[in-house]
Amino acid sequence: MQPKQNILHLPVYQPGKPISEVKRELGLTDVIKLASNENPFGCSPKAKEAIVSLLDQVSIYPDGGAVDLTHAVAEHYGVKPNQIIFGAGSDEVILMIARAFLTPNDETISAFPTFPQYKHNAEIEGATFIEVPVDENGKHDLKAMLAKVNERTKIVWICNPNNPTGTMLSEREIVSFIESVPNHVMVVLDEAYAEYTVNEEYPDSISLLNKYKNIVVLRTFSKIYGLASLRIGFGIGHPDVVRSINQVREPFNTTSFAQKAGLAALQDHEFIRTCREANAAGIRQVTAELDKLGLPYFEAHGNFIMIDVKRPGQAVFQGLLQRGIIVRHDPGWGYPTKIRVTVGSEEQNRKFLEALEQVLSEVAVS
Ligand SMILES: *Cc1c(COP(=O)(O)O)cnc(C)c1O
User: What separation in angstroms does the CA of 256 have from each of 21, 129, 232, 250?
Assistant: First the structure.
């Protein structure tokens, strides 16, 4: 049997190590995972109640159209229900956009490094993927990305804040980019960390939808809403675009649990506000210490910080792991001396910083 030629080179996704595995392998009892940008405070208690309330209905198929949640999200953002599409995480929305729009004749563009799923799904569809390096501050180089746009370009993926660098593009920068690309190009604004941003210049992308028909905004319940395990995220765009994405959607792609928990999570404004503020305080806590240690980092606008440890990132990752702290280092980023750490609770951050200081004294500077 022969798989499709264009998937032969694709790597199988390597997730961050699960806590249970690290505990077992290293014989540790206290392990902190700061590797996958999960919410250290869990999810809203209202979302938990919603899940429990459905336990007797496991045998019933979910509402494939996610009608209740669609209406709640539409109201929350002031858009029409036919502008919203749900996926099993925004990962699946990325997959569906690629499936609905990309062909082997198309080109598609992203920053590098950025969220890997744009490239992964584009290559499955056989499209040509063009990666444009971020600048020295870890920010999208929109000018260089624009220079790559041509008549074959179908989609430009913009991750804002960018995972893994954490940097942010302002509304002015986003608008100027959208104004410069031709109308046949779809601009996907992946805003998985939008709710964490506290900078006034962060774009109000959903209001831009009224003016620009060619943008799709991606949001997720996996990050600040704390529902990563339930797998639910969504895209907001022009009704015609959303209809095309809907045509390739699997009939029951989001579960009843995810829909009902998402609805409850969306309405718990207090939980979200608390998490946003704790995260901003956590960024201040961690970066103040990094300044003392003399370690550079990119401006952090999400719930994670990319740190230059000035030593082999893999060795620092391993040293932290030995001390029960799981962070992320990916050789594929092209940053051999950087690690990405999720902002945790105050105590988790303190333990991370203590462990980091010890590891720095053990690993030789590159
Ligand atoms: C985490 C993340 C997502 C998707 O998460 P889902 O769990 O699939 O919703 C999408 N984009 C970026 C940039 C992310 O970091």
Answer: 30, 35, 10, 15
